[in-house]
Amino acid sequence: MITTDPIGDWTWEATSDDPSVQPSRAVEVAAAVWNVLARVGIATPVAEVSVTVRSVGDMRDIRFEETGLPLEEEPLAPHTALSRAASQVDSLQGDFVVAVRMCCPGVWSVPGARHRAEQLFTIQADVWKRSLVAVTLETYSDAWLTMDTRGREQIATYGENAPRLALALKEVSELFGCAPTPGDENRYATPTETGFEDIRIAGPAYIDAWGTFEIPARSRRLRSSLPASEDEYSETTENPVYYFTVQDDTGQILGYVWAAQADNAAGFEPRTAAGERAFAAGRACVMQLREAHRLGLPALDALSWLAQQPIQGGIGHIPEREPRSSPSLDSLEELSGSW
User: Fold this and answer.
1) Which of 275, 279, 256 is CA-nearest to residue 333?
2) Dist. CA 316–CA 174, nearest whole Å
3) Distance CA 99, CA 71 (A)
4) Where does the record place the region Disordered (predicted)?
């Protein structure tokens, strides 16, 4: 399953008394960690990078900020987006905190198939006053666990993926010359220096952590930037549902717009692995469902009506002529998060 909050994280820290350390060291370190992930086969191009510089004395004082920068093949070669950003960072005078964050696509395996997530990892690299370099690696997949986040054993999946994560953590540790500090135990798992504890030994903290926490978190993220409205269908149902896939121009599924078969419920389930585009498509679909509600359409009629409309903003399209069926909303939610 793919989550919107991290499954686990690891942090490395290194100090230096060398005054020649440049603030752009944060960019170099983040790129080096990404190269490790790519080399062991769990990160794929192209990462998206943000660079922020804040005053040490007032973290609200942002001296430089760039977002959406691509991680190019040679990220600090002349004339690349990151090299230009690094030069601007190094030209600043004073004591700063330089933060570099990379959203990293990556791949994981299940027996017989490989899947890609647009945010499998994030890399956060910080340089404090040219003396402290810290890197945190976060992962958003349960492919490294002996049990998935719904409480089911997945030994074959674990066997295909956990060794690659362990190798990546080992190589990043060699890069820094120290072992990582694993993050705290969380609702999903307990990180260790080499990956995660075997959940089967103590049992999971929650039988269905993904359903308990991820589904509400996705809903909040989906709706956080939408205006409040009374024109809403119910977001929940205990009945079977019909649904259409929402796809981009390449055929990648961004999510599923659905309506209940027997009550006035409808909504959108983002395919988490598709990243932010899934939520953008979902917001557009929710706004159109609100329009259908204003028109007085029952939920099933709204689903058919929406399938005949272009999705607002050109964010995806519905290719099917007839909806598919799912025995429950829970089953559709699981489909949206499983690959």
Assistant:
1) 256
2) 43
3) 15
4) 314-339
The Cα 328–Cα 312 span in angstroms is 27
What is 39-83 written as a DSSP string? HTTS--S--EEEEEEEETTEEEEEEEEEEEEE--SSTTSTTSHHH
Per-residue pLDDT at 18: 62
Beta-carbon contacts of residue 78 (< 8 Å; ≥ 6 apart): none
Backbone φ and ψ for 147, nearest 5 degrees, come out as: -130, 140
**What pLDDT, in 10s, does the model give residues 136-156?**
999 999 999 999 999 999 999
Distance CA 18, CA 298 (A): 68
Three-state DSSP class for residue 180: coil
Distance CA 324, CA 326 (A): 7
Residue 117 near residue 105 (C-beta atoms within 8 A): yes
- Give the C-alpha separation, 120 to 104, whole Å: 6
Distance from C-alpha of 206 to C-alpha of 197, rounded to nearest angstrom:
15
pTM of the entire predicted model: 0.93
